[in-house]
């Protein structure tokens, strides 16, 4: 299907999932499904905590007020299998990006353990060796900031081949051409700089750079939210195709449940740094729901205005992540 058709298809799928009319079927090859069913676990995150200290005033220090911390991620556990897509959804500030940065090593965790292929990952990225960096890659939200404006596309893509895979410059240049073909870009784009590319083309280059190392796990943080709707579908289909080809695992982060339902095998819902619900995509779109999940599902837009329902209006505000309520953090708004 073309890009615009795929967008409408994704929206229709999201609407029908919410109404319980269909059960999602992941767009994966037989190999990916077989590997995922084999139970090979790539990533295990157990009771992960990422807390940030609150800046204290001089008066607080002089009066010896207790130190406070923002619990951006609080005791979250996840597993991702080979060939599987885990969708991580939640509103802004829910902690979904923070836990992904903890996995990649950009936000050192306060507690808990993260393992990749049964090897515990050091908290900070600078503590990790090339083998870990090769097998764990990240696609950032904004392609404008993810690429060096002074380097050509070829130079950007050549670097991971040479530094992480030990290729010579000649071998890397050959691999770059094939990589561009894999992300549906012409070979002559290797000579272009980011300023000569559209937003969708920049994101394709960022995805190509991530796949240069043939990673076991790719994390995509809001990878399509900054793009036009027609471009979003082509990027989603590209991620699906590359995953089917490489049989890697994908952690896809978004605030859009329609997109998550189109792409993911399992869906995790986060709120105020906590994991509210984790289920297969075919289960999450059917009741019973966690009340927060139900509110998110009610906000999915409908193509037919006559079918648009009033979103559930939650009472109160998101609790302070310095002083979270006991038990489920959503209970004051339930």
| Oligomeric organization of the protein chains | single chain
How helix-rich are the residues, as a percent range? 25-40%
Based on Cα principal axes, name the global outline: globular
Number of domains: 1
Which topology does CATH recognise? Rossmann fold
The second-level CATH architecture is 3-Layer(aba) Sandwich
General description of the model:
This protein is of the alpha/beta class and 334 residues long. The chain has a single domain (3-38, 83-106, 122-326), classed as Rossmann fold, CATH 3.40.50.300. The protein has helices spanning 3-19, 30-37, 58-62, 96-104, 130-135, 143-146, 153-164, 169-182, 199-211, 229-246, 257-263, 281-284, 291-298, and strands spanning 41-53, 69-81, 85-89, 111-116, 119-120, 136-139, 217-221, 249-254, 266-271, 274-280. The strands form 2 sheets. A 6-stranded mixed β-sheet has the order 6-7-8-3-9-10, sandwiched between helices. Strands 2-1-4-5 form a 4-stranded antiparallel β-sheet. Helix 1 (3-19) packs across helix 11 (257-263) and helix 7 (153-164) crosses helix 8 (169-182). The longest helix has 18 residues, at 229-246. The two termini are 41 Å apart. Mean pLDDT is 83; it is low at 1-38.
């Amino acid at each position: 299907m073309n890009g615009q058709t795929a967008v409408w298809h994704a929206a229709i799928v999201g609407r029908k999932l919410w109404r319980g009319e269909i059960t999602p079927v992941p767009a994966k090859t037989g190999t990916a499904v077989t590997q995922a069913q084999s139970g090979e676990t790539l990533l295990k995150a157990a009771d992960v905590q990422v807390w940030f200290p609150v800046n204290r005033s001089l008066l607080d220090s002089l009066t010896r007020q207790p130190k406070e911390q923002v619990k951006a991620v609080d005791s979250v556990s996840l597993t991702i299998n080979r060939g599987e897509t885990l969708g991580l959804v939640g509103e802004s500030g829910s902690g979904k990006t923070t836990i992904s940065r903890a996995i990649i090593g950009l936000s050192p965790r306060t507690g808990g353990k993260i393992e990749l292929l049964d090897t515990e990952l050091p908290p900070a990225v600078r503590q990790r060796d090339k083998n870990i960096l090769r097998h764990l890659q990240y696609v950032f939200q904004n392609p404008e900031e993810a690429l060096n404006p002074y380097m050509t596309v070829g130079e950007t893509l050549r670097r991971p081949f040479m530094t992480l895979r030990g290729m010579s410059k000649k071998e890397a240049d050959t691999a770059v051409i094939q990589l561009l073909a894999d992300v549906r870009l012409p070979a002559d784009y290797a000579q272009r700089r980011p300023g000569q590319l559209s937003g969708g083309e920049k994101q394709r280059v960022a995805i190509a750079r991530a796949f240069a190392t043939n990673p076991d796990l790719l994390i995509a943080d809001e990878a399509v939210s900054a793009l036009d709707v027609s471009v979003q579908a082509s990027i989603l289909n590209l991620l699906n195709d590359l995953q089917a080809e490489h049989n890697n695992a994908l952690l896809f982060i978004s605030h859009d449940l329609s997109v998550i339902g189109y792409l993911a095998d399992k869906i995790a819902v986060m709120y105020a740094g906590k994991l509210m619900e984790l289920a297969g995509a075919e289960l999450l779109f059917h009741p019973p729901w966690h009340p927060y999940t139900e509110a998110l599902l009610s906000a999915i837009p409908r193509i037919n205005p006559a079918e648009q329902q009033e979103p559930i209006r939650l009472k109160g505000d998101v609790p302070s992540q310095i002083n979270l309520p006991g038990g489920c953090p959503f209970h004051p708004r339930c």
